[in-house]
Amino acid sequence: MQWNELSKENCSLARSLAVVGDRWTLLILRDAFLRVRRFEEFENSLGIARRVLSERLALLVEEDILKKVPYQENPPRYEYRLTEKGLDLYPVIISLVHWGDRHYAGRRGAPMLHTHKTCGHDFQSVLTCSECGESLNARDVTVRPGPGAKKRA
Amino acid sequence: MQWNELSKENCSLARSLAVVGDRWTLLILRDAFLRVRRFEEFENSLGIARRVLSERLALLVEEDILKKVPYQENPPRYEYRLTEKGLDLYPVIISLVHWGDRHYAGRRGAPMLHTHKTCGHDFQSVLTCSECGESLNARDVTVRPGPGAKKRA
Asked: What spatial distance separates the first Cα and last Cα of chain B, rounded to whole Å?
């Protein structure tokens, strides 16, 4: 199997997970997409220890996923906002949400509804192909080593 | 903020993360989408401790994300295949891969290329709205409590 020749370090999924692959970080990002911005708001929303929250926020800032923006001068206070790179994570978050809606929502239905402002409707997210526009599923896809693949030893 | 009134337990993202929100589990799922199926193949591909792999596979089977299928009778041997619920995780995995491609691939480009068999082209995944078909991004979306939201205390 050629996939096993590609080292973990050379896998885009492994690289993504190294940054965002833990529960607290993904829950912080969920809150950021829900427009939570201040340290105390994250703390209250998540019930997370301040030290852990500090560490996770610092990593997200270091990785340019969140940026610190001053909202008060004296004393200086900052809030955390998604960068473009952070906003690029939206498909990951909404796909996890919709998967949870589909498989864990229970009888009463989804805890949250998402409305597409552009068309005004509640939506489900649909993954499509950039080239033909059709919906994508795993069975329709093949993979092969790309330009950044490691050469065989 | 009304979002803070929705408890974590009542959040589809939190529910999803409770099942698939750790690195090993997501790497096992990556391999499953790359058609890795047998215990020893996962072990070799991931360099994971057998006990940890066993635990994660058992959880994924219990959650009906993978199913055990016999491939040998004497002694009995099983392989692990994605169920429909597991295949539903494809948008999560491919979104994480493409985010990694975009932001961590380095100069040489993506380690893997994905081809859409239906149209024959290498693709990027595009998240679209089920209702109008336009591409979705976080800024175009609003959220509100759904039928499964907890009532205010």
From this structure: 15
